[in-house]
Design goal:
Layout: E1 15-19, H1 26-35, E2 44-48, H2 52-55, E3 60-62, E4 68-69, E5 74-75, H3 95-112, H4 119-140, H5 165-171, H6 200-241, E6 252-254, H7 262-271, H8 291-298, E7 302-306, E8 315-319, H9 342-349, E9 354-357, E10 363-366, H10 369-381
Parallel strand pairs: 1-2, 1-3, 3-5, 6-7
Antiparallel strand pairs: 4-5, 7-8, 8-10, 9-10
Helix pairs in contact: 1-3, 1-6, 3-4, 4-6
Length: 382
């Protein structure tokens, strides 16, 4: 009995990504990781070189080559004439920003399961750039967070530069003879396709560790914004619009479950300047609020929420920071309560069920919702 020949499976070569060798930075480390999230680059091989003849053989080149041309998959930003920015932002892009500009929406759609045309993909695309990618672009292009003229009289209390992602990537450039993580899923290549000899192999392994650090950080941000931040927007808006039910001046925000509220609250406050900030007065003869009172009415001072979704969960009262990145509160919990716990705190505050108030006054707790509400009411009277 004759049998038909089994057709041979056509082997396809892995897509070749090129970037420079030598000292590496956060931007190309992230750019390579982002590309490898896409089907086109699965699998892919990485070639680290500055040799133009070798880079010309690559499917895609990032952060080297002196060329930005999406039609040929060239994404360098070091050209003198380069000035590309992300939509509605002014920071010049790095290789990470360029890859994200062109492939970010596809990556977000793929990782979240959303349709590429879904408006939430666009929201997440802008959010991730503003909160994560832009700082990498600025750092690589030497753009300071503040204009130099604004910081001439400022002196840092301590050095925080060593805890940034860019600093951690920079540390990986140093060979301290620490074993690198396995790289079986992040293949590198040399010109002849063999395993590169030391020290290039060791350098490449450290680059791949940097790429994994940047990439997994990006994915954690994406997951958080998709599964927590984005759904919370409607929850925070509902609480913000009903805040006058809990306080006549709208200074309390109450949630029925733990909710990431800070980012959304500042957004809603900044966009509500043209809308009424409190219910209309029942008296037609009531004097209009002065500017200072109006500003107070526009700002939420305390946020109340349960510690968990459990019906028996304790409740928290948290003071709203002066701004999103501030450690100072708009109105901390009363000085007399700070650092106290349990019975001593209940006696001092006059509120049953008090659990604690942090020494800085930015947060406190009570065993019940009503107790937390009473702590808020008393704090507002101080």
């Amino acid at each position: 009995m004759s049998t038909s020949p089994v057709p041979k499976r056509v082997k396809t070569s892995p897509t070749l990504i090129g970037t420079h060798n030598g000292h590496f930075h956060a931007d190309e480390a992230l750019a390579v990781y982002l590309l490898r999230l896409l089907p086109t680059y699965t699998p892919s091989t990485l070639l680290r070189t500055r040799d133009p003849s070798l880079l010309s053989s690559c499917h895609t080149v990032v952060d080297v080559g002196g060329e930005y041309d999406p039609s040929t998959n060239r994404y360098d930003h070091h050209q003198r004439t380069f000035n590309t920015t992300f939509p509605s932002r002014s920071t010049k892009l790095s290789s990470a920003g360029l890859v994200y500009l062109h492939f970010g929406k596809a990556i977000i759609a793929q990782r979240t399961g959303l349709s590429p045309e879904d408006k939430d993909v666009d929201i997440l695309w802008h959010k991730l750039y503003k909160e994560f990618i832009e700082a990498i672009d600025a750092n690589d292009n030497g753009i300071p967070v503040y204009p130099p003229s604004d910081t001439t009289t400022l002196t840092k209390r301590f050095n925080d530069s060593g805890i940034t992602l860019s600093s951690l990537v920079s540390d990986l450039n140093n060979d301290f003879s620490i074993s690198a993580p396995p790289t079986h899923d992040l293949e590198t290549a040399t010109t002849n396709g063999t395993t590169p000899p030391h020290p290039q192999a060791e350098e490449d392994a450290r680059f791949l560790a940097a790429s994994a650090l940047m990439g997994t950080s990006f994915l954690r941000k994406l997951t958080g914004y998709h599964t927590s931040w984005l759904p919370a927007r409607s929850t925070v808006l509902a609480a913000y619009e009903s805040r006058f039910q809990d306080d006549a001046q709208g200074r309390l925000l109450v949630f029925r479950e733990p909710t990431p509220w800070k980012d959304h609250l500042y957004t809603f406050e900044s966009s509500s300047s043209d809308t009424p900030t409190s219910p209309p007065s029942s008296s037609s003869n009531a004097d209009p609020p002065n500017p200072q009172q109006q500003q107070q009415q526009q700002q939420v001072l305390y946020v109340l929420y349960p510690e968990s979704a459990s019906p028996t969960a304790k409740w928290r009262i948290q003071a709203v920071p002066a701004h999103k990145e501030s450690f100072e509160s708009r109105q901390p919990l009363p000085e007399a309560w700070r650092g106290l716990r349990d019975e001593e705190l209940s006696a001092r505050s006059g509120v049953e069920g008090a659990v604690f108030v942090h020494a800085s006054g930015f947060i406190g707790g009570n065993v019940s919702e009503e107790g937390a509400r009473e702590m808020a009411r008393r704090a507002l009277e101080v």
